[in-house]
Amino acid sequence: MNDVYEPMYIPILLLLLGIGYLVVLSTVVMKYRFALSGKILISISVMIYLLVGMYMIGGGYYTDGHNEGPMLFGIGFLEMIILSFAYIFIGLAVGIGKRDSR
Questions:
Q1: CB 21 within 8 Å of CB 91
Q2: How far is CA 80 from the centre of its chain?
Q3: Inter-CA distances, 15 with 24, 28, 53, 67, Å
């Protein structure tokens, strides 16, 4: 079996990124008004965030065949990379779809 080195701080960092997303999303939604393109990009961002959350909770974890050991420490670099897409789409929504500040 090929073991990949994942430092112990990666799951903690990933959980902080997930919680930080909610803060960033609420700040962006409260601060800016968006055109249709911005609303679509924010919707994509939220959908990505929810899909990554579902994967991390267990659906994708067990589908991939990793059902041994504690789940928290099975969360690693792949999820962190995928979670970055939610932040990217929020940035695009502000950059492209922003109408004005509130």
A1: no
A2: 7
A3: 14, 20, 10, 20
